[in-house]
Design a protein that fits this description.
The structure is a homodimer of 390-residue chains. With 390 residues, chain A is α/β, with parallel strands linked by helices. In chain A, strand 6 and strand 7 form a beta hairpin. Chain A folds into 2 domains: 170 residues, Rossmann fold; 201 residues, Up-down Bundle (Dehydroquinate synthase-like, alpha domain), CATH 1.20.1090.10. In chain A, the strands form 2 sheets. In chain A, strands 1-8-5-4-2-3 form a 6-stranded parallel beta sheet, with helices on both faces. The longest helix of chain A has 23 residues. Chain A is built from 15 helices and 8 strands. Helix content of chain A is 49%, strand content 12%. At the A-B interface, strand 1, helix 8 and helix 9 of A face strand 1, helix 8 and helix 9 of B. Strand 1 of chain A pairs antiparallel with strand 1 of chain B.
C-alpha cells in the first residue's frame, strides 16, 4: 500500500424524505443562498418545490440560478459568479447532478476572487484555490460523486477544453441523497451513470502504481458487482428503491477517495480522452466513457494483462490460463454489458467519423499535458481512439 | 437500504514515516499538548522518541500522561482529567491502541466539565456530551477503529462495568497510521486484533434491520477476506509491510461507519457480552470476542440462518442446500480459523468456569439495558454463554 492522506468531511444525509432537511443544513452557513440548478427537470418532478419549501421554512433569502446544461460550460458559470457577487450570497446550494454541482463549485470559487481573475487559470492549474463559499447539494443524478469529493469539471466552449479543478475548499459541506429522486431518471441516463461509476473505479483499479492492492481491489469488485446488479434491476423497474439506493450510495463510494486511498497517484486516462468527446461533440459523459474505456483497456492490457485478467475472472467469471486472452475476453464482456444496458460502445454509434481521430487526440493531448500524463502523446491517444471506432 | 447520516471528518495520514507529521497536526489545535500512552512499549520500540521529536520541533509544550492499561479503567482516566485541568492543556494526543485512544477521549470530555460532574453519567447515557478538547492520535495497535470513530469504551473497576460513550465531539481530528509500528506487535495481539476487526463487521452484517444490504455485505466480505489473508501473512512474517498496512486500514474501514451506513440501527450483542469478560476477568478484548462471537452466532443462526449461510458460502466456501446446516458449518469454520491464529474459542480455555455463567450474564445484562438491547435478558445471555463453554 502506498502512503496516503484521506480526509472527507462531507456530511451525507441519505434516504427517502430527507430533502426536507435542506433548509436546516443551508442555515448553518448563512442567510443568502444561491440555488443552482439545471434546465427545469426539477420543476417537473417536484424536487424544486421540496427544496424551496424547506428553504422558506427556515427563512432563507433565495437567489435562483438555473439553466446549467450537461457538460457544463464556463460562460454560464461566469454568469453565476456575477450573480453570486451582485447578490452577495453566503452559500451555494446545488440541486442537480454532477454538471450542476460542478457549476456550483466553480461559482463558489469565483465569488471569492477579485474581478480581474481569469477563472480558467484555476482549471489550467496556473493558480491554486485558496477560498470558496460553502457548498451544499441535493443530488438528482448519481454518477460523478461530486457531492462528496473536491473536484469539478468545466468546459471552455470556444477552445473546446473540458478541464477540472480540485481543492478541499470546494468539497461540499452537506449532501442530501434521496434515492426516490432517481425514479424519473431515463433508462439512457441510468445506464450512462452506471458506466461513469464503473469507470471511476476502474481507472484506480488499473492504476500501475500499486501492485499490492487486494484490499482496494475487493472494495472495487464488490461495488462493481453491486452497480451491475442494481442497473439490471433499474432498467426493468425504474422505481425499485433499493436498486436506486445502491446506485446512489455506490456512486459516492466509487469516487470519494475510498477506493483509491493507498493506490498511489491516480491518473484518469479514459476520462481524459472522453473529455474531448464531450467538449467537441457534446456527447453525454457516460456514453463517451463506454466508448473510450474498453479501447483504453485493450491498449493497456496488451502491455500489462494481469490486472485486466483479474477483473475478467472476478466480475465476469472468465476462465483460462492465458492471461492476455482472459484479459481480452473480460474487456469484451464489459463492452457487451455496456451495450446491453444501452450505452454506446463505438465512435461510429454516436456519429463521430474515424477521420476526426487525430483532432480529438490533439484536443485530449492538451489535457494530458495539464494533468501531467506524459505517456499520452497525440500518437498514443490516436491509437487508443482507433480501438474505439467500431 | 435504510435512511442514514454519514459524517466522518477525521483526517487520516497513512504510511511509513508519517509519524514525523504529528507535531504539525497537533500545532493546528494549540500549544499545550497532553500525550497519553500506555505502559511503556512505545519507549522500547522507538515510537515515543519519534513523537516527542516531532512535537519538540514544532515547539509544543508537552504534558505526559502514561500508564494506560488494556481494558482501560475510569479511575486512571479521572487522574488524566485532573492532570489535563491542572496543566490547562489545549489538545490531547493519544499514542497507542484503542485503550489509549479511549482514555484520551474520556479525558478530552472530562477536561471540559465542571468539577462536580460524575464522569460515569456520560457512560450511563444519563448526560450528553456537548464539548471536548480536540483529540489527535498516533495508532500503535489497529483493531478498535477508535482513531476514526466517535466512540470510547471504559471500565469502572469497582462495579466491573465496561460501558461506552459516543459523540461527534470525541471524533479524532487527525490520526496517523504507520504500519511499521505494528511490526513489533506480538502474534497473540495480532490475532486478537483480527478477531476484533472481523467481529466489528459481523455485528453489522448480521444486523436484522436491513434485508437488502448487498452493497454493505460485499464491502464486509471483501474486508474480511483481506483481514484473514493478511493475518495469515503476519503470523508467519510479522514485518510484512503490506499485510500490516491492510490490517491497519482494514481495521479503520471496518468500524468507521462505512460498512454499517444504511444498515439501520446496529446493535453489538457480541461486544456487549464480551465486555463482561473483560470487565470481570480482564480477558483481552479480542480473545473474549473469539469466545463469545461463535456462541452468539450459533444461538442466532438457529432462528435466522440465511445470513449466516451467506457468510459460510462467501467466506468459507461451504456448500449445501440446507441453510441451517450451511450456517452452522460456517460458524465452525470461523471458530477453527480463530483457533488456528491462536485466539481462544471457549471460556474453558481462558479459565472461566461454567458456574460463573449466571454472574457474567447479570453483568452483561446491565449493559444490555443501557444499550437498549431488550431481547437480551439474563436468561438469553446465559444461554449464549453456555454455547461458549468448550
Amino acid at each position: 500500500m502506498q502512503n496516503f492522506e484521506f480526509e472527507n468531511p462531507t456530511k451525507i444525509i441519505f434516504g427517502k424524505g430527507c430533502i426536507a432537511k435542506i433548509g436546516e443544513e443551508v442555515a448553518r452557513f448563512g442567510d443568502r443562498v444561491m440555488v443552482v440548478y439545471g434546465r427545469g427537470s426539477i420543476k417537473k418532478n417536484g424536487i424544486y418545490d421540496q427544496v424551496m419549501e424547506s428553504l422558506q421554512e427556515t427563512g432563507r433569502t433565495i437567489v435562483e440560478f438555473g439553466g446549467v446544461k450537461s457538460n457544463p460550460v464556463l460562460s454560464h458559470a461566469l454568469m453565476g459568479i456575477d450573480c453570486a457577487r451582485t447578490e452577495a450570497v453566503d452559500v451555494i446550494l446545488a440541486v442537480g447532478g454532477g454538471s450542476v454541482i460542478d457549476t456550483a463549485k466553480t461559482i463558489a470559487v469565483g465569488a471569492c476572487t477579485t474581478l480581474d481573475t481569469d477563472m480558467w487559470d484555476f482549471f489550467m492549474r496556473r493558480q491554486p484555490i485558496t477560498v470558496a463559499l460553502p457548498i451544499v447539494t441535493v443530488v438528482t443524478i448519481s454518477a460523478s460523486a461530486s457531492e462528496m469529493n473536491p473536484a469539478a469539471v468545466m468546459t471552455k466552449e470556444n477552445e473546446a477544453q473540458k478541464f477540472s479543478i480540485r481543492s478541499p475548499h470546494i468539497q461540499p459541506k452537506t449532501s442530501i441523497l434521496d434515492p426516490t429522486v432517481l425514479f424519473s431518471l431515463s433508462p439512457a441516463y441510468s445506464a450512462y451513470s452506471a458506466v461513469d461509476v464503473i469507470t471511476h473505479m476502474l481507472e484506480g483499479y488499473f492504476n500501475n502504481e500499486e501492485p499490492n492492492s487486494s484490499l482496494q481491489d475487493r472494495l472495487v469488485e464488490g461495488l462493481i458487482d453491486t452497480v451491475m446488479e442494481s442497473t439490471r434491476v433499474i432498467l426493468s423497474d425504474p422505481a425499485d428503491y433499493n436498486a436506486r439506493a445502491n446506485m446512489m450510495w455506490g456512486a459516492v463510494l466509487a469516487f470519494n477517495g475510498l477506493t483509491t486511498a493507498g493506490m498511489g497517484p491516480i491518473s484518469l486516462p479514459a476520462h481524459m480522452i472522453e473529455h474531448s468527446l464531450s467538449a467537441i461533440y457534446d456527447v453525454a459523459h457516460g456514453a463517451g466513457l463506454s466508448i473510450v474505456l474498453p479501447g483504453w483497456m485493450r491498449y493497456t492490457a496488451l502491455k500489462t494483462p494481469a490486472k485486466f485478467a483479474r477483473l475478467a475472472r472476478e466480475i465476469f467469471s472468465v476462465q483460462g490460463d492465458d492471461e492476455l486472452q482472459v484479459a481480452l475476453d473480460g474487456i469484451e464482456c464489459l463492452k457487451t454489458w455496456f451495450s446491453t444496458i444501452g450505452s454506446p460502445i463505438s465512435l461510429e454509434e454516436v456519429g463521430i467519423p474515424k477521420r476526426d481521430i487525430n483532432s480529438i487526440a490533439q484536443n485530449a493531448h492538451a489535457l494530458a499535458q495539464v494533468w501531467g500524463l506524459n505517456d499520452y502523446t497525440v500518437d498514443v491517444i490516436a491509437r487508443i481512439l482507433t480501438l474505439c471506432v467500431e
